[in-house]
Amino acid sequence: MAANLKITKRANLDDDIIALLRSKQLDTAKEVLSRSDLELVWELEECYNVVQKIQKAVSKYALPKTRTVLDLFYSSVEGGFLATGLKALDDFLHGGVATGSITVIVGPAGSGKTQFCHMMCCLATLPKERGGMGDEATVLYLDTEGAFAPARLAEMLSALDTPLDAIASCVSRIKMIGRIASIEEFEAILKDLEATVAAHDVKLIVVDSIAALVRKDFDLTSIALRQGKLSSIASQLKRLAEAFQIPIVIVNQVTTQFVDGPGSDRSFVTAALGTSWSHSVNTRLVIEPTTGKNDFGLKQQLQDISLRRLTLAKSPTAPVVMMAVQIWAGGLKMALNPEYTPQPPPQDDAMQVDDGEERVDEDIFAK
Fold first, then answer.
1. What is the pLDDT of residue 357?
2. Strands, DSSP E only, in the chain?
């Protein structure tokens, strides 16, 4: 989708041509390709042959790239994942969070979503021999809730046995953009994100969180506009992930759905933002406080407030499975012994993520 694809050097155009396009407010592929040959000749004050070369280059740039199954296989073998350090989860995901895709982590407040994001930031900056993305890798953290905690990053890296001098290097390569206050601000950042990723060797993007922006900017009278904005954002992020073969991790919140409408006694907790958004992501993780029931064949251990139930709720390569994790100084870790086998979530207990129909998440509009 070329709509908001900003024209950069990756369009294979000379710097002076890019500067000319920008001087005429032709910043995106859509703005160039929606004009006729004669309109561009008039606006750019260039000859017809130059305009044709520009159109051809921009068209090729905006066209989705075709990849064979063999290409995808080789990319998965050659660093196609960022390991989470959670062995059971990485095993099911065939290596970790996949590059070139969007992973969403969903959960109630205080469940550990931001802890997971901070941990992934730290892991991405580690050397490749330690499962990271390399000594030059940069992470971009888009903060909409003011939850970014630099001191926590240093604590995690220290707990992961990172040398003191290396901690400073890792933290310096985690770049935070915040606090993003509106959808309009977020879209403006997205417009320049491709150039930022290319210039700074960004290997991971984290958005914490997408639902916070929706809560601020939309109400029940603007559902169609909200869904359109979310679809556009998802398309742009997916294209960015695929173009640079990097993982993008996004935080989403939860909302309460009433089975028979508002006022009903029957309800369940589900991911916010509706079904259209849920279908826009590749992988979904759900993190929740443990219920106190015998979820994992244990009773006493579930009294620990640091324990969480992590569910792999959606994946193109794995079944729905549930596992026990624990919050600690280094982020999240497996809570049970290595021989433990993850299991399907109990039907009466698991947080519902998809109900198969388009939803209107009324709780998300609560101020």
1. 40
2. 81-82, 97-98, 102-106, 138-143, 174-177, 202-208, 248-252, 254-258, 267-271, 283-289, 307-314, 321-328, 331-334
